[in-house]
Write a structure and sequence with these properties.
- It is globular, with a radius of gyration of 20 Å.
- Helices cover 27% and strands 35% of the residues.
- By secondary structure, the chain is of the alpha+beta class.
- It contains 3 helices and 6 strands, in the order H-H-E-E-H-E-E-E-E.
- A hairpin with a 2-residue loop joins strand 5 and strand 6.
């Protein structure tokens, strides 16, 4: 018996690693697609379960800058943002929405999310308990309210996803809109 691996052995090991990566990607994709479905169904209490207790949910403001400064086209931690929430604040926002006394969402909006281009920053085969991976995605959000209020928003998300008690949880989300000026009348509804 040889101590060296044959080409078949190498291909089999590589195939297993590739399958593990594909299974993990499918789990992450399903997780993010389900989150979008839960939002579209207005099941905001369930939506909160997608997030870790130590969440940071942040949407900096995009800036119009010269080409030479293009890497700094969003506000940073020391500057203003559209929102910068922890889980407690998200829970309070959801409780307020559920009172039915929320002028910006009465009547409630019809919202549809499309999540795409989901990818890991670094290819890994698994997320063990407590591990955190960086996941990037793009989104389109369509919102309609009343007869004429329509918003279409495009952007990117940078998520940190962690395995907690066997389940995936978002520990951090940075939302980057692909526009400088917000044309929507409000951000009073869970959007991203």
């Amino acid at each position: 018996m040889s101590d060296t691996m044959t080409q078949n052995d190498i291909e089999r090991v590589s195939s297993v690693k590739n399958l593990d990566y594909l299974y993990l990607m499918r789990e992450i994709e399903d997780f993010l697609y389900l989150e979008a479905d839960v939002l579209d169904a207005r099941d905001w209490e369930r939506w909160l379960t997608f997030f870790d207790d130590n969440l940071r949910y942040w949407m900096p403001i995009r800036k119009n800058l010269a080409f030479a400064n293009r890497e700094r086209d969003a506000t940073d931690d020391r500057e203003i943002s559209w929102f910068d929430n922890d889980k407690d604040l998200l829970e309070r926002r959801v409780r307020q929405l559920l009172t039915g006394i929320h002028w910006a969402e009465e009547p409630v909006s019809r919202v549809s999310h499309v999540v795409t281009n989901i990818r890991l920053d670094s290819p890994v085969q698994e997320i063990r308990e407590g591990d955190v991976v960086d996941v990037r995605s793009h989104f389109i959000v369509y919102r309609n309210r009343l007869e004429t209020e329509t918003d279409i928003l495009f952007g990117r998300r940078e998520d940190k996803i962690k395995r907690v008690s066997g389940e995936l949880k978002i520990t951090s989300r940075r939302v980057l809109l692909d526009q400088h000026t917000l044309t929507a009348k409000n951000l009073a509804f869970p959007l991203f």
